[in-house]
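Hello K.,

You asked for the raw outputs rather than the summary table, so here they are, unedited. I folded two proteins back to back in the same session to keep the settings identical. This is the first:
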Amino acid sequence: MERRSTCSFASRRSLVARAGIVFLCTLTVAAASEAQQAPGNAVRPRLDLTRMVRLTRTVPLAAVTPAMAENIGPGSHLIIDIPGAGTFGCTANFIWASGATRYLGAAGHCFIPEGTTATHGPGADFNASGVRVSVCVSNCSFGGESGFTLTGDLVVLGAVAYARQTAADGDIGNDFGVVTIPAALAPQVRPSMPVFGGPTTTEEVAQFEPLCHYGNGVVVGETFVTMARVGVAGGSTPSYWMGDLAAAPGDSGSAVVTCDVNGTDVRGRGAAGVLTHLGVEVGAQSGFVFGTTIGRAIEMAREANLSLALVFP
């Protein structure tokens, strides 16, 4: 296995706050085999919120203002209630379109129970009609010293249109889902990334290049300096990508983009994928993470007769 250090942001395993962004620097590892790139013990970073203290309020669609609707897009907090399974927290990725309908993306495992496979296509074994997905549009706050408290104003989204999750044996790259955005909210969605801006195109994850994401992952009693994080790409296959990024439970589904770094100025450039799995260093905030590529996500959604395309700012 080749080891190569190319990051100039800070020392290995350090997090340095610059202009509201966490710059993550580690020793980038070029994996020698696909098995090493996609470890079977990778963990889905969906956050179990079943026992949270819930101080949210649901806002009627008619009461949503344009300013509040700016939070419906990449990086939004998602609260998913799955009947019989519990309540889970994830992070939204991109705005997607199929025909005139708009969708908000996440990881597939955000929308279906553990042990199930998909809502559509081969092995489909779950009807998601009872799943309720809410998005936090303002005053959002997650975390807590001794437990998990959630505050904010929520809007209820529409039906889960598609979801498939990676199998327990670690077939990274088969994890993606979308939820319908009600037509009343479609004109108010925000396709751009928080902090970074963009994306303006679709790009592959190339080794040793800067990689950015904005997530809502937390560790009880400890939080990241910021939700906007920069790391180093580890490469990709047609189905999945890998990278060295700060991540934790709650980051599942978040948008990953290629980015340009100029000093403390970081700009989002190309939609690269969906963050779905933490690597072997599951006890730490930083380490290798994995996810589904944009091309693979589009291919998967065809199982539900969706012809998805990214909506760019």
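The second followed immediately with the same parameters:
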Amino acid sequence: MYSRFKDGFAKHVDGVMDGGKYHELCVETTIAMSRCSLNAIAIEEELLKQGKETPAACIRVAQIGEKTKLHMTCTLQVLKKRNLENRWSWQQEGTDSVTSDAMALLEIREAGFANAAAPAPSVAKPSFANGNFRKKCEEHPNQSAEMCSCQEAALASEPTQADFEGAVREATQTLEDAVIGINDALEELRYELEDEEEGE
């Protein structure tokens, strides 16, 4: 599922897949992941009914990790696309080598994710990618970031190179943590199933 999603994004940024087709792929991926999530919840509930709390918890952790993995995959796609548009002032000044290095490192890490034993499954400040990096407003600390009007003004402005690279690093680290969490949960689930089989 993820390989198809990643391939579709690559085709989209290369101009091989138009926006409409890519949108269809995003919708299909979201629907497929929602089905997987519902199946995981159903299995977790059944295990809890049987009093098997540890394997149920493993499934819950893996399911939450998968949700984060998909969210961060989408986030990084948004960041990559915005970077490729090459329209920010700091990109025009010839100072984008660090960003290029950051994106190259991201490609290497993503290649590692593809080989991991994981289940098949308008830009501004660091909040530009799906709202994941929304900063708290210093002038209105008690106001939620989603409700503060200052954030709307920030979203209309250009990110700095540091903001952009920070968002890439944060999303990449969150994605890595999600993959590790999924793998750990599945390994624990395997142990639980092995112990149960031995007990029978």
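The chain has one domain: 2-121+161-199.

Happy to rerun anything if the numbers look odd on your end.

Regards,
P.
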